[in-house]
Amino acid sequence: MSSTAPLHLAAEIGGPPRYDPGHYTGLARLAEHGALDFVTLGDSFARPGPDALAVLSRVAPATGRIGLVPTVTTTHTEPFHVSSAVATLDWVSRGRAGWQADVSTTGAEARLFGRRPAAPADELWREAGDSAEAGARLWDSWEDDAEIRDVATGRFIDRDKLHYIDFEGDSFTVRGPAIVPRPPQGRPVIVVDGTSGPARETAARHADVVLVRATTPEQAAGARTDLRRRAAAYGRDPGALRVLVALTVDLGDAETAPEPGLESGPPLAAGGSYYRGGPVDLAELITRWHRGGAADGFHLTPITPGRDLERIVNGTVALLQHRSLFRTFYPGGTLREHLGLARPANRYAFEGGRA
Question: pTM value?
C-alpha cells in the first residue's frame, strides 16, 4: 500500500561527550538547514557528559525552527521538576521543545542517587507513564490566559485559571499547579522509544512520536499497526501518532553498497537497527519504506555526527527534496506544526466554563 503522507525526518546529535556548546549548536543548525523536524540529544546517568536538556536550552536561541528533544529519565527525577524544565525549554525555543522519556534500569545508576534500588523495566515504564501523565496535566494547570500582568492593579495571575492536578501514581503524588505558565505548544511533544515490550504500552498511551527499531519494512509496518491499535484502545486518535523507524547510520564510505538487509549490520550496544552505505542508497531506502507505508518517517543516529550528519543533510535529504519527497522549508514555527499535530486543548478549561 503506497503512502502519500508527509515524510518526517529527525536526527540524533549526540556522541562522545563534548563540552563545547558550539559543537551542538553547529550540528543543530546543520539539521535545521535540511528542514529536519527535530534533533534529539541522548542522555543517561550511566555515562558521563553534559546534561542534554541544559545543552539544548543553550542551543535554542542559536536556532530558529528545528525541534529540540532532549532525553530525560523519569526514574531518579521528580516529575514536577521535569515538567518545569521541559516547559522552560518550550518557552526559550518559542514552541520547539520535546521530551524523550526514558528509564534508568541499572544498579549503578540507582547508587548514584542512593534513594531507591534498581527495579524491573516494566515497573519503571509504568512509572514513566505516570510521569508523562503528570507532566501533561501540569502543563495544562495554567490556562492560556491565566497571566494578567496588570501593572495598574498589581495583578499578575488570574487564580481562577490555575488548577490543582491532584495526580496520584503508584510511586508519587503531585498536587500542582505548575510554576511555569502553559508552554507555547500547550504540551511539548513526548517521544518514546517503543521498541521494547514494556516501553511500547507507555508509548501508545502517552507519546506523540514513537521510535521503533526494525530490520524490514514489514516489521516496521507491523509495529506501527500495533502501536496505533493500542493507542485507539486508550481512546486516542491513532492517526495522530507519529511512528519513526530508528536507524543508526554509517556513511563513512559513500562508495560502499549498503548491507543486504539491515539485520546483517554489526550488533550495537543499544540493540538498534544498523545501516551502512552511501547517502544516495539511504535516500532510496527511506523512499522505498515510506512509500510502502512502513512508517511515518525516520530517526537517524549518525555513527560519527560531525561527518555523517553533513552527508545526511547535503546528500540524503537534498536528494529527497529534489524528488519532492521531503519539504525544503518549514511551513510553521513549532515542533507540533512540523509533525502535523494539533495544539492540544487545555483539559481544565471548557468553552464557556471551568472544569
Answer: 0.92
How far are the Cα atoms of 4, 10, 114, 239, 245 from residue 66, in angstroms, in the given order?
23, 10, 37, 23, 19
3-class DSSP state for residue 98? strand
- Cα gap 90→81, rounded to integer Å: 14
How large is the average pLDDT for residues 264-286?
Answer: 73
Whole-number Å distance between alpha carbons of 307 and 30 = 11
State the pLDDT at residue 272.
54
Q: What does the pLDDT look like over 43-77, one tens digit per residue?
A: 999 988 999 999 999 999 999 999 999 999 999 99
On the 0-12 / 13-18 / 19+ scale of CB atoms within 10 A, 197 is: exposed
Element containing residue 8 per DSSP (H, E):
strand 8-12
AA identity, residue 32 = E
Among 129, 116, 128, 136, residue whose Cα is nearest residue 74: 128
